[in-house]
Automatic annotation (TrEMBL):
Its EC number is 3.4.19.12. GO terms for biological process: endoplasmic reticulum unfolded protein response; ERAD pathway; protein deubiquitination. It is found in: Cytoplasm. It comes from Acaulospora morrowiae. It catalyses: Thiol-dependent hydrolysis of ester, thioester, amide, peptide and isopeptide bonds formed by the C-terminal Gly of ubiquitin (a 76-residue protein attached to proteins as an intracellular targeting signal). Keywords: Cytoplasm, Hydrolase, Metal-binding, Protease, Thiol protease, Ubl conjugation pathway, Zinc, Zinc-finger. Residues 105-237 form the OTU domain. One of its GO terms (cellular component) is nucleus. Hydrolase that can remove conjugated ubiquitin from proteins and may therefore play an important regulatory role at the level of protein turnover by preventing degradation. PANTHER family: HIV-INDUCED PROTEIN-7-LIKE PROTEASE (PTHR13312), UBIQUITIN THIOESTERASE OTU1 (PTHR13312:SF0). This is Ubiquitin thioesterase OTU.
Amino acid sequence: MRLRVRERDKVHVITNLTETSTFLELKHSIQTLTGISPLHQELKIGYPPRVCKAGDQDTLISIGIQNGEVIILSELSLSELDSQPKANTSSTKDTIVIRVENGFVILREMEDDNSCLFRAIGYILFRSIKIMLEDRVESTIFVMDPEKYSDVVLGRSRDEYCSWIAQRNSWGGAIELAIFASHYKVVFDIQEIRSIDVKSGRIDRYGQGNYGQCVYIIYSGIREYLCLKHLSSILVNQSTLFQTYLDYDSIAFTPTTEASPEFDQTIFDASDETTLTASTEIADKMKQMHKYTYTADFTLRCDQCKKGLKGDKEAVQHAKETGGYYFLLYF
């Protein structure tokens, strides 16, 4: 497919897409050619030209973009973005944001369950929290290099891993992030997934270094309500006693704090120190607000006798001794 993108007095040619490529892939191709982020792109197609308001996951053929199409590109200013209709979303007054030049770096929180890594990556890459959630197996196993990720690395056979990752109570972590980084560097030219740990401030980098493009996620462990239940007379596996949800959230750039998430920019230049610094500041704010918990050192209170406890080991011992098995997280 050959497309022409007209920008003022320039004409750019795109040849790396097909009819089944998505609108988001088109916008990323335009960004590569022009430097204009998808957030600031207004695309017009057809005759007379009309603004294309397709969804990011709509295919080019479904939008009506065909081989030889001329696409007119305009760059939206901040004031024009501000005038766009706002989505009816919940209040953003408690959302963590960092002011940067031309806008804000913002935390986009995912639902707290063991699928939040898939939601976070899906939102960053596809602007959809469902696209990778609908088939967790396809999101990982079919893009996995069998030589690099052997049974030894996976800690189980490939079939067992496939069965395990398909379960909603199985969380993604370092292996899955490494798999995604390896695969999406080809699809989106993303060289690095950067995961920032709230407790330590450590940045884990999955990919190939400080060049190309990168994305950011925030890891904050386990938080909010923890419950010990289905207690048996012999407590062997402590992890089965807790509703232990690993928590990953996404980082995005938004022109204003009131702008709809559809205007988010989630893919950044790997050399962009501003976004890196703002993302670490968000993690630091989360730490100050106690928006993180780890099983070894979280503080709990037995909801029955009100005794204060620290960590999962003390909670399990307390449950053995008293039969109390409902615990609330507190600070």
